Request: fold
Amino acid sequence: MKITKDEVVYTADLARLDLDENSINRFADQIGDILEYVDTLNSVDTEGITPTSHAIFLSNAFREDEVKESMSADKALANAPEKEDGNFIVPKVINS
Amino acid sequence: MKLHELTIHEASDLLKKKEISSRELTKAVLDRIGSVEKKVEAYITIDAETAVKQAELADSEISRGNILPLTGIPVAVKDLICTNGLRTTCASKILKNFTPQYDAFVIKKLKKAGAVIVGKTNMDEFAMGSSTENSGMKTTRNPWDLTCIPGGSSGGSAAAVAADMCLGSLGSDTGGSIRQPASHCGVVGMKPTYGRVSRFGLVAFASSLDQIGPLAKDVLDCALLMNAIAGYDPADSTSVPEAVPDYTSFSSKGLSGMTIGIPKEYNETKGLDPEVSGAVKNAVRVIEGFGAKCVEVTLPHTKYAVAVYYVIAPSEASSNLARYDGVKYGFRDKEKNSLIDMYKSTRTKGFGPEVQRRIILGTYSLSSGYYDAYYKKASQVRTLIMKDFKNAFKSCDLILSPVAPTPAFKIGEKIDDPLAMYLSDIFTLSANLAGIPGISVPCGFSSTGLPIGLHLMGRHFEEKKILTAAYNFEQATDFHKQKAEI
Reply:
């Protein structure tokens, strides 16, 4: 097995997903298959090869620091599941 | 004359001559949607009211003599491109009720060009898939055979064009998501060079690979849509400030002087359907007939493209999709125990299985202890894939291949085997990894009547050369003129 069920559960927790037993088993099998396939990359000699993260050569995209019109608070909050007085509302973060 | 069957350039000519109005044209398209949508299921949202208003506005502009190539033309947009005030779901339950407060760059451009947006098309959830079956909303069917998939992830955009439910559409392509559905639905689809079209307002899947592009009934329409959407945008830091040519000014006087490279590795691809390779071989003969020279080239690392892609794309996705936390927009589960529990229940209920699978795969590839083995290794092989193309383009102008190894497969056939589904993108993925442009043009039909596409790829920013070859090819064939019977 390329990835154990415990690793699936641990990784899901990092990604803030809560899997049931069924999904854990299925994902362990399927992701295992994919990782096994990905292992074909080990046969490629990449010694000294620079990794590519961006396919087009672009230097840093700087711009002038100018004040421009931006989205209003009302618009930014328009899709909020819960809001109050111009703020996003979330469940409590710290237990008292 | 059935108005919904017109191409963009045909309709535009009639609008200019005032033989038809945009209102009539738009109504005809909406009627067509009304009569076939139940069978094809291409749209997530249809905005008839706004479309008719936009059409009337276009008519008044035309009456004043203001007509651009897209003025009054009804088009559709993949549902991951933000449209101000019009729901944009990414075919995900997590964005089921998301209404953007701004237009994507390409939408601003389309509106400025006078286009009429009739609705938002179905797709694989967050563009993750090759069949549109991963949609959290509905299953789109291939207009040529309603038991088959339309391809994906821009399956709704391709099916809508093939079924005359719009005159052209926009999709997005991260690993083949415009070209593969275009091939399966018998329409033209182009993935531009990375950075050619702004990604501002495109919901991110894999940011180093995503690119918006057109789907159209023929090559000229594809070029017209490219003219409308290409260009530099300071709001996208990966947008390239390169001058935009007139994509429609291609020559139809043959292809002499052009060299087409045919990668020898592509014929060795396992699972390549003989009908697909036959259609592509015929296409090579047609292209040679126009005076192009065909040479063999080699892309030795192409066989690793699927493995590279399925490390890089999920890694980028796992990071991009971290934003769906039930706080700022989208679905939030009722769980109130703690912030972390709310995140977890929201994301677990909001994302479908393929999205969850890729988030876990990506998180794993990036996690401590595995980063070097997976993400770094894949990014190094990506460099080698890019070098392959650079070398191959020393001896040719364009590279030719199939788009997909088989014609459209049956709905349900590959849904339980993600790896088999991933392998259907084998010919298209490497263009995204290298950032180069590519097109799919209809080049035949299978014995069961399913369309087959021809894939042409070019150097960075050489879309025009691709369009020229595709246009010449199209002049000698009538595959693009055939209509699906629905």
Notes: The longest strand of chain A covers residues 83-84. Chain A has a mean pLDDT of 92. Residues 5-43 of chain A form one domain. The first helix of chain A runs from residue 5 to 14.
